[in-house]
Hints:
Elements: E1 3-7, E2 12-17, H1 22-31, E3 39-42, H2 48-60, E4 63-69, E5 72-78, E6 86-87, H3 89-92, H4 102-109, E7 111-115, H5 128-136, E8 140-144, E9 147-151, E10 160-162, H6 168-178, E11 184-188, H7 194-205, E12 209-211, E13 217-221, E14 229-232, H8 237-250, E15 252-257, H9 265-274, E16 277-281, E17 284-289, E18 299-300, H10 312-319, E19 325-329, H11 339-345, E20 349-353, E21 356-360, E22 369-371, H12 375-387, E23 391-395, H13 398-403, H14 407-412, E24 417-421
Helix pairs in contact: 1-2, 1-7, 4-6, 5-6, 6-7, 8-10, 8-12, 10-12
The protein binds uridine-diphosphate-N-acetylglucosamine (UD1).
Amino acid sequence: MDRIAITGGARLNGEIPISGAKNSAIKLMAASLLTEEPLRLTNMPRLADTRFMGKLLQRLGAEVIESDGDDGPETLLTTREIVSAIAPYDLVRQMRASFNVLGPLLAREGHAKVSLPGGCTIGARPVDLHLQALEALGAQIDLNEGYVYAQAPRGLKGGRIDFPINSVGATEHAMLAAVLARGDTEITNAAREPEMVDLADCLNAMGAKVAGAGTSIIQIQGVARLHGATHAVMPDRIETGTYAVAAAMAGGEVRLTRTRCDFIQALLDKMAEAGVEVTPHNDGLTVKRNGARLKAVEVDTAPYPGFATDLQAQFMALMTLAEGESVIRETIFENRFMHAPELSRLGADITISGGEARVRGVASLNAAQVMATDLRASVSLVIAGLAAEGETVVNRVYHLDRGFERLEEKLSACGAQIRRIKGGGGEDE
Ligand code: UD1
């Protein structure tokens, strides 16, 4: 199993192009099931998770062709017919977001059998809201032996979906199903993440009628059929935020391009409060820190436009070297501090109590062997390694490969001392 070794202390200087958003890309790929015509997605990230979604879609009947277009990597998805409306456990357990094929299968075929998902080990992560949304659209749902059996023999019909809490995946799922339902659907208390807008834009390009994505009320007029389209995947806001924090941690000056800073405003406000210089520009932003010690700041994760839970681990790594005590509250997922004990192995001073972490800044971190536990936690260890004295080795990097495209290449192009150690020998074997 691969490991990543980082020798800390090098400043970062240069440019990092941001890839297409993983979380958006996988839902956009699921949208291709809604039409028999080709959906061409450009600015596609090439990641374990997108490859994985491609495999699942192929199993359901899609033809998936990857190529390099004028504007970077693209994927052409064509599902002339659904050959199987069954998403088996061995595929769904590996990536929770693959559960989102249920709605499109149901909308197009009138029935589907999809395994309950697995995914990152960051809390219970139920799918009750997904199922409630589909039931509001007239689906009949039964659970049996770890599978969801869904039926809508006469097709889905528009309805009112009122989410009790914000859910990214359930809001997307509701959109993916309602676009082909008969009549109108209104989703209230919808998630407002930029990925909602990206999905709605793609669906509308395919002939859907979705209004209000990005606000808490989404209205959908169902249409009888969707057609093919070309859509550019939005920039990855979590990758953007991750490299912004990495630059702040290592020091230096890094320009992040092909992205948008309004997507991570809550993070940038906290970085500025901590003493990092952030300059927005047309194509992204520049992050600069010239050696002065950062100040500890408090952070509460929240649904968009609040501070993203997917940037919490990275920010915690940054706070380990800040002056003073930082309080970080995780309000979206329980059990999302698994990086804290690993950061402590590098010399960080962190106390966890329930959903709250207290990080007392230390003067320096020292390299150690650490273990990646989930996708975002893993990258926080890489970030800490950039500033730790000596060589930090991160084990179990398959988590990183799920969500960060060419991470070592992007960081080493800016001067980081980072390399991948292929295969064998790790404590994880
Ligand atoms: C998505 C992102 C993930 C991010 C999260 C929150 C993808 C592939 N993943 O995950 O990276 O961390 O949004 O921004 O897009 N919940 C329920 N019942 C449900 C669904 C969710 O109780 O049916 C709860 C969850 O346990 C969690 C909260 O709702 O406490 C928010 O989860 P949700 O927004 O659904 O996250 P995901 O879509 O799984």
